[in-house]
Amino acid sequence: MEFYSEQDLQKNATQLRSTLLAIGVPSLLFAAALVYSLIVRVEWLTTLVTLLWGGLLLFLWDMKLAPVLAYRKHLNGILGGLRREVEGRVVSFSEEGIFQEGVFFNEMIVNCDPNMDPEGERLFYVDRCKAAPAIVPGDCVRVASNGKYMTSWEKRDG
Fold it and tell me: Chunked in runs of 10, what are the mean pLDDT values of the chain (158 residues)?
């Protein structure tokens, strides 16, 4: 099952545009208020508008824009990078979540060694924005990945 496609990048671009619009409209209002306060020379109003605008920009950057940009970077790396396939047995699948490079992932450990030697275990990050794979520990799987990031999976017989 493939996780990523060009459609994901298009959805991210749409989300980025709407986020920038959501930041731009209030910023225009604050800019107009700032210009007005500078024209009428009301120092306390200039200070207040500047502080409120700065606080709003910092909040919106951290809460809205940064996650969209981080996911965009992740998608570009996944769609443009090299893939590697491995086969093995699922050792564990953790749904607790981990925050890696600005994106939330679940962790999955697959043992690629036929003798199930612990040295053959590989850690994969599974995107939490995608449907979690319907696998349980002990299942045989074929996993395609870009580095540690799982890009597709397939349940195997065995």
Answer: 88 96 95 95 95 96 94 91 90 87 91 83 90 85 91 83
CB 137 within 8 A of CB 128: no
Sign of CA dihedral 24, 29, 31, 32: positive
The pTM of the full predicted model, rounded to 2 decimals, is: 0.83
The enclosing H or E element of 91 equals: strand 84-100
Measured CA to CA, the distance from residue 113 to residue 87 in angstroms comes to 9
**Using the 8-state DSSP alphabet, how is residue 81 labeled?**
S
What's the one-letter identity of residue 2? E
Return d(Cα 21, Cα 156) in angstroms, integer. Answer: 46
Q: Is 91 left (phi over 0), alpha (psi -120 to 50) or beta?
A: alpha
The neighbour count for residue 84, using CB atoms within 10 Å, is 12
Partners of residue 107 on adjacent β-strands: 94, 125
